[in-house]
Fold this protein.
Amino acid sequence: YQFYRGRNLATLTGQQVKEHFHYFRDHPELYPLGLYLAELAGSVVSGEGPAPEICNLLLEGWRRLIEQPDPQLFLRAFELKLLDFSGHCPHLNGCLQCGSAAASFFSPRQGGLLCGDCGHAADRFTVQPGTVALARRLLKAPLQQVKQIRPQGGQSHELGRLTGTFLRYHLDIGESRALSLLKLFK
Protein backbone atom coordinates (compact mmCIF):
# COMPACT_ATOMS: atom_id res chain seq x y z
CA TYR A 1 0.00 0.00 0.00
CA GLN A 2 1.08 3.54 -0.64
CA PHE A 3 -0.11 6.31 1.65
CA TYR A 4 0.08 10.06 1.61
CA ARG A 5 0.27 11.44 5.12
CA GLY A 6 -1.78 14.59 5.50
CA ARG A 7 -1.95 16.80 8.57
CA ASN A 8 -4.45 14.60 10.40
CA LEU A 9 -5.01 11.41 8.42
CA ALA A 10 -3.18 9.26 5.93
CA THR A 11 -4.78 8.78 2.52
CA LEU A 12 -4.42 5.59 0.54
CA THR A 13 -3.00 6.56 -2.84
CA GLY A 14 -2.06 3.20 -4.36
CA GLN A 15 -1.60 -0.51 -3.95
CA GLN A 16 0.17 -3.39 -5.60
CA VAL A 17 -0.98 -7.02 -5.55
CA LYS A 18 1.81 -9.50 -4.81
CA GLU A 19 -0.12 -12.75 -5.32
CA HIS A 20 -3.24 -13.08 -7.41
CA PHE A 21 -4.42 -16.63 -6.56
CA HIS A 22 -5.80 -17.13 -10.07
CA TYR A 23 -6.61 -20.75 -9.32
CA PHE A 24 -9.68 -19.63 -7.33
CA ARG A 25 -11.02 -18.30 -10.64
CA ASP A 26 -9.87 -21.38 -12.56
CA HIS A 27 -11.19 -23.85 -9.95
CA PRO A 28 -14.47 -22.41 -8.64
CA GLU A 29 -14.98 -25.39 -6.31
CA LEU A 30 -12.02 -24.12 -4.25
CA TYR A 31 -13.43 -20.62 -3.87
CA PRO A 32 -15.77 -21.43 -0.93
CA LEU A 33 -12.91 -23.28 0.80
CA GLY A 34 -10.64 -20.26 0.45
CA LEU A 35 -13.42 -18.04 1.78
CA TYR A 36 -13.86 -20.39 4.74
CA LEU A 37 -10.17 -20.10 5.62
CA ALA A 38 -10.47 -16.30 5.51
CA GLU A 39 -13.68 -16.37 7.54
CA LEU A 40 -12.04 -18.49 10.23
CA ALA A 41 -8.91 -16.33 10.36
CA GLY A 42 -11.03 -13.20 10.55
CA SER A 43 -12.99 -14.60 13.47
CA VAL A 44 -9.90 -14.95 15.67
CA VAL A 45 -8.10 -11.75 14.69
CA SER A 46 -9.06 -8.62 16.55
CA GLY A 47 -8.63 -5.27 14.86
CA GLU A 48 -6.47 -4.04 17.71
CA GLY A 49 -3.08 -5.27 16.62
CA PRO A 50 -1.04 -7.28 14.17
CA ALA A 51 -1.47 -11.04 13.93
CA PRO A 52 1.40 -12.18 11.69
CA GLU A 53 1.14 -15.89 12.59
CA ILE A 54 -2.52 -16.05 11.65
CA CYS A 55 -2.08 -13.95 8.50
CA ASN A 56 0.85 -16.14 7.42
CA LEU A 57 -1.21 -19.27 8.14
CA LEU A 58 -4.03 -17.92 5.96
CA LEU A 59 -1.62 -17.08 3.16
CA GLU A 60 -0.03 -20.55 3.38
CA GLY A 61 -3.51 -22.12 3.45
CA TRP A 62 -4.50 -20.35 0.24
CA ARG A 63 -1.23 -21.36 -1.42
CA ARG A 64 -1.59 -25.04 -0.46
CA LEU A 65 -5.31 -25.48 -1.06
CA ILE A 66 -4.88 -26.19 -4.78
CA GLU A 67 -2.68 -29.25 -4.18
CA GLN A 68 -4.89 -31.09 -1.69
CA PRO A 69 -6.29 -34.51 -2.60
CA ASP A 70 -8.52 -34.32 0.53
CA PRO A 71 -9.67 -30.70 1.01
CA GLN A 72 -11.75 -31.60 4.07
CA LEU A 73 -8.70 -32.97 5.88
CA PHE A 74 -6.82 -29.82 4.90
CA LEU A 75 -9.60 -27.70 6.46
CA ARG A 76 -9.30 -29.70 9.70
CA ALA A 77 -5.53 -29.13 9.75
CA PHE A 78 -6.06 -25.40 9.18
CA GLU A 79 -8.69 -25.24 11.94
CA LEU A 80 -6.40 -26.98 14.44
CA LYS A 81 -3.42 -24.78 13.55
CA LEU A 82 -5.56 -21.65 13.77
CA LEU A 83 -6.84 -22.70 17.19
CA ASP A 84 -3.28 -23.34 18.29
CA PHE A 85 -2.01 -19.95 17.07
CA SER A 86 -4.94 -18.16 18.70
CA GLY A 87 -4.33 -19.87 22.06
CA HIS A 88 -7.53 -21.93 21.98
CA CYS A 89 -6.20 -25.35 20.98
CA PRO A 90 -8.12 -28.32 22.42
CA HIS A 91 -6.27 -30.50 24.92
CA LEU A 92 -5.41 -33.69 23.01
CA ASN A 93 -2.72 -35.26 25.22
CA GLY A 94 -4.49 -37.47 27.75
CA CYS A 95 -7.30 -36.66 30.13
CA LEU A 96 -7.74 -33.01 31.00
CA GLN A 97 -8.46 -33.77 34.64
CA CYS A 98 -6.29 -36.72 35.65
CA GLY A 99 -3.78 -37.01 32.79
CA SER A 100 -4.70 -40.61 31.95
CA ALA A 101 -3.59 -41.72 28.50
CA ALA A 102 -6.84 -43.72 28.16
CA ALA A 103 -8.89 -40.63 27.32
CA SER A 104 -11.62 -41.62 24.87
CA PHE A 105 -14.17 -38.83 25.27
CA PHE A 106 -14.08 -35.26 24.01
CA SER A 107 -15.86 -32.39 25.72
CA PRO A 108 -15.98 -29.09 23.78
CA ARG A 109 -17.17 -27.24 26.90
CA GLN A 110 -14.28 -28.52 29.01
CA GLY A 111 -11.84 -28.06 26.14
CA GLY A 112 -10.43 -31.47 25.40
CA LEU A 113 -10.13 -35.17 26.11
CA LEU A 114 -11.51 -36.93 29.16
CA CYS A 115 -11.11 -40.50 30.39
CA GLY A 116 -14.00 -42.76 31.39
CA ASP A 117 -13.63 -41.89 35.09
CA CYS A 118 -13.54 -38.13 34.53
CA GLY A 119 -15.70 -37.91 31.42
CA HIS A 120 -19.08 -37.10 32.91
CA ALA A 121 -19.65 -33.89 30.93
CA ALA A 122 -23.08 -33.68 29.31
CA ASP A 123 -21.60 -32.58 25.98
CA ARG A 124 -19.02 -35.35 25.71
CA PHE A 125 -18.79 -37.75 22.80
CA THR A 126 -16.56 -40.71 22.05
CA VAL A 127 -13.41 -40.15 20.01
CA GLN A 128 -11.36 -43.03 18.65
CA PRO A 129 -7.62 -43.11 19.49
CA GLY A 130 -6.77 -42.99 15.78
CA THR A 131 -8.69 -39.74 15.39
CA VAL A 132 -6.82 -38.20 18.32
CA ALA A 133 -3.51 -39.35 16.79
CA LEU A 134 -4.58 -37.84 13.45
CA ALA A 135 -5.39 -34.51 15.14
CA ARG A 136 -2.01 -34.45 16.87
CA ARG A 137 -0.25 -35.25 13.61
CA LEU A 138 -2.09 -32.48 11.76
CA LEU A 139 -1.13 -30.03 14.49
CA LYS A 140 2.56 -30.87 14.15
CA ALA A 141 2.79 -31.25 10.37
CA PRO A 142 3.36 -28.17 8.21
CA LEU A 143 0.44 -27.44 5.87
CA GLN A 144 2.53 -28.54 2.89
CA GLN A 145 2.65 -32.09 4.32
CA VAL A 146 -1.10 -32.50 4.89
CA LYS A 147 -1.52 -33.85 1.34
CA GLN A 148 0.57 -36.88 2.35
CA ILE A 149 -1.60 -37.79 5.36
CA ARG A 150 -4.33 -40.37 4.80
CA PRO A 151 -7.08 -40.76 7.41
CA GLN A 152 -8.62 -44.18 7.94
CA GLY A 153 -12.26 -45.12 8.21
CA GLY A 154 -14.40 -42.41 9.75
CA GLN A 155 -11.50 -40.42 11.22
CA SER A 156 -12.04 -37.43 8.95
CA HIS A 157 -15.72 -37.18 9.87
CA GLU A 158 -15.01 -37.65 13.57
CA LEU A 159 -12.26 -35.02 13.47
CA GLY A 160 -14.68 -32.64 11.76
CA ARG A 161 -17.12 -33.11 14.61
CA LEU A 162 -14.36 -32.49 17.16
CA THR A 163 -13.11 -29.26 15.56
CA GLY A 164 -16.60 -28.07 14.62
CA THR A 165 -18.06 -28.40 18.12
CA PHE A 166 -14.93 -26.86 19.63
CA LEU A 167 -15.03 -23.87 17.25
CA ARG A 168 -18.73 -23.31 17.94
CA TYR A 169 -18.31 -23.46 21.70
CA HIS A 170 -15.04 -21.58 22.27
CA LEU A 171 -14.98 -19.09 19.40
CA ASP A 172 -18.74 -18.82 18.84
CA ILE A 173 -18.27 -19.74 15.20
CA GLY A 174 -21.56 -20.99 13.85
CA GLU A 175 -22.48 -22.25 10.41
CA SER A 176 -20.03 -20.86 7.89
CA ARG A 177 -21.51 -18.74 5.12
CA ALA A 178 -18.56 -19.71 2.94
CA LEU A 179 -19.16 -23.45 3.30
CA SER A 180 -22.83 -23.01 2.45
CA LEU A 181 -21.57 -22.01 -1.02
CA LEU A 182 -20.20 -25.55 -1.44
CA LYS A 183 -23.75 -26.79 -1.91
CA LEU A 184 -23.93 -24.73 -5.09
CA PHE A 185 -20.99 -26.64 -6.55
CA LYS A 186 -22.29 -30.12 -5.77
Notes: The helical segments are 23-26, 31-44, 52-65, 71-85, 129-140, 155-170, 177-180. Residues 76 and 160 are 6 Å apart (CA to CA). The chain has a mean pLDDT of 90. Residues 155-170 form the longest helix (16 residues).
